[in-house]
Amino acid sequence: MISPAALQKHVFHWYKKVADKCHDHNRIFLMHSDGDLSMLMDDLIAMGLDVIQPIDPSCMDMTQVKKRWGDRICLIGNVSNELLRSASTQEIEARVKELLRDAAPGGGFCLGSGIPSQLG
Q1: Which of 13, 18, 49, 69 has a 20 to 30 A CA-CA distance from 101?
Q2: What integer pLDDT is reported at residue 84 of this predicted model?
Q3: H-helix or E-strand containing 90?
């Protein structure tokens, strides 16, 4: 809804202040955001973000996100709420095991749900 350029110009410097306050008080800075954050991840990390939740499974591949940024930020999510709502126990278990195999090694990953279900 807001262009990366507008975020960089008008928003991120305020988030940096929030991150600094959090860190000054030995707290983490966690942000919730949906959608494809690939174009913004380096900026989010540079401003001091510690945790991003969720990594949206509809548009971001957790394995790729972990490889690219997982050593600099904690990643949460990537189990689709739609999967949780409608899949079999075995399908959910397979997805969870896949995420744990691909994203958990080295730390910085918290298993969690992704985006809200789009139920009509």
Answers
A1: 49
A2: 93
A3: helix 89-103
SS3 81: helix
Q: From residue 70, how far is each of 11, 14, 45, 90 by CA, in Å? A: 24, 24, 11, 27
Phi/psi zone of residue 107: left (φ > 0), alpha (ψ -120 to 50 degrees), beta?
left
Closest CA to 80 of 69, 92, 90, 66: 92
The answer to whether 17 touches 47, Cβ cutoff 8 Å, is no
Query: CA 29 to CA 5: how far, in whole Å?
Result: 22
Residue given tokens 């990537």 in the structure block: 78
Other CB atoms within a 10 A radius of the CB of residue 115 amount to 18
* CB-based contact 69:104 (threshold 8 Å): no
With a cut of 70, say whether residue 116 has pLDDT above it: no
pLDDT digits (tens, 9 = 90+) for 56-92: 998 999 999 999 999 999 999 999 999 999 999 999 9
Q: Which two tokens stand for residue 101?
A: 């195999």
